[in-house]
Amino acid sequence: MSDVTTSPDLSHDVSTVESRPKIGALVRAVRRRQNLTLQALGQTSGLSVGYLSQIERDIATPSLSSLTRIAHALGVEVGQFMPVPHGSGIVNRAENRETTWINDGGMTYQRLHGDFPGATFSAFRITLPPGFVGEIDRHDGEEFVQLETGEVRFDIEGQPHALAPGDTLHFRSDMRHQAFNTSATEAAVIFWLGTSPVLRLRQEDTPRG
Questions:
Q1: Is 35 left (phi over 0), alpha (psi -120 to 50) or beta?
Q2: pLDDT digits over 42-62, tens only?
Q3: Closest of 201, 186, 199, 207 to residue 78, by C-alpha
Q4: How many CB atoms lie within 10 A of CB 108?
């Protein structure tokens, strides 16, 4: 089957569109627009060519961390590829919290962190669908996880760590890690990522003094 030569319209705000192109089509369109090969994108993002190819064909769904690396490598905002919740300043009201996702049927994210100059970490409430198997990841920073509901296993440098509700896990992000939902029900985790905030405020959401 030949590649589709037409590019999806990326001029809209994907956060307002319920039916939007798949993540793979969006990544491929931006890459081709910049005349980049998968090899070049792999070198700048630190992700393998095989994995990037799977993402572009929607065989694999990237984590928010990997999608951020792809966006940075392409010089665009993560909002080019997925809905980005509106910012909340320093207070994030539960009733106003938005749920976002990368691909239908995968993980969902609720942003818990605010946005202000000098912010150094991100925090999310993440749901993992039954049987979820995450990608193997490693990157700068550190991570702290607290399991709310369900049963989740984290493999860190090959060592399995099974979590029950209320359990926490804290580790360096440069260690190879992977998450699994080992139950037949959805699991929810609170997740802190000790790097600069992943989902930043849109320009129009910046708090004004």
A1: left
A2: 999 999 999 999 999 998 888
A3: 199
A4: 18
Residues 75 and 98 in one domain: no
Strand partners, 186: none
Record the pTM: 0.76
Question: Using one digit for the tens of pLDDT, what is the confidence trace for 115-142?
Answer: 778 878 889 999 999 999 999 998 888 9
Q: Has residue 89 been placed in a domain?
A: no
Residue 173: which domain range? Answer: 94-205
Write down how long the chain is: 209
Residues with Cβ within 8 Å of residue 116, at least 6 apart in sequence: 89, 90, 207
Query: Is 9 within a domain?
Result: no
Among 29, 51, 80, identify where a domain stops.
80
Best CA proximity match to 68, nearest among 193, 205, 204: 193
Chain position carrying tokens 């590019």: 7
In a domain, 121, yes or no: yes
Residue 34, both tokens = 């910049």
Instruction: Specify whether 56 is located in the same domain as 153.
Output: no
CATH number at residue 107: 2.60.120.10
Tokens standing for residue 127: 């749901």
What pLDDT digit, counting tens, does each position of 73-132 carry? Answer: 999 988 889 887 766 678 888 988 888 888 777 889 998 988 778 878 889 999 999 999
